[in-house]
Write the structure tokens for this entry.
Amino acid sequence: MQAFDYQTPTCVADALRALGAEDARLLAGGQSLLPSMKLGLAAPSALVDIGGIAELQGICVDGGSVVIGAAATHAAVASSAEVQRSIPALADLAGRIGDRQVRHRGTLGGSLAHNDPAACYPAAVLGLGATVHTDRRKIGADDFFLGVYTTALEEGELITAVSFPVPEHAGWQKFKQPASRFALVGVFVAKGPAGVRVAVTGGGGGVFRASELEARLALDWSAAALAGATVPADMLNSDLHASAEYRAALIPVLAARAVG
């Protein structure tokens, strides 16, 4: 592994100053960046470790939303009494990410900034119509995810928290790849302040909303409403794990299970 500087700021302001150095990269849980560095796919001159910044780790209920700090680990979200009480589907999703080591190191903000097309958190953010808070602005879920490993974040912009509106109903189902535990297909469904939303991860080049399923559930929030529903296969991935047609068939099935 190449040489680099390692910095451990104790507040957001210090982290942003350190991030101003040429080729500096933020490090949260390190579950995506460090493997990329080991493979030679990333070679930052400095790592700015934000994992110890207390103001990025809190979880609270504010009005009608659950607000989760960007550095909160998956395990912290899964075990949070506030999340379990207000949005149990989100706690369920966090508790099934990766394995125990990943859940105790990986973070909400890191997952969203990386935006792996098979990651779980993007489905919850898009499905719940959440808002991503940064050091500069607030970004709605529909505007945040732009494609494979691409988001609306600008150079040097830091996610500080995510606010999730508390839904009336929500559910999560994931058909995982057994080795990696990433989603071959994952579906998050919600009915709440942002309307009826169905977000799909693992199927295509990034998280997306399934409009036909949303329309059906808006008329009748039940698993039966999704009988016979289809998703076009031409927008989905085919790989050694599953064909596009297989993924297309899975999406309405998992959505119906998520509705319950």
Q: What stands out?
A: The domain at 1-56 is CATH 3.30.43.10 (Uridine Diphospho-n-acetylenolpyruvylglucosamine Reductase; domain 2). The chain is about 30% helix and 25% strand.
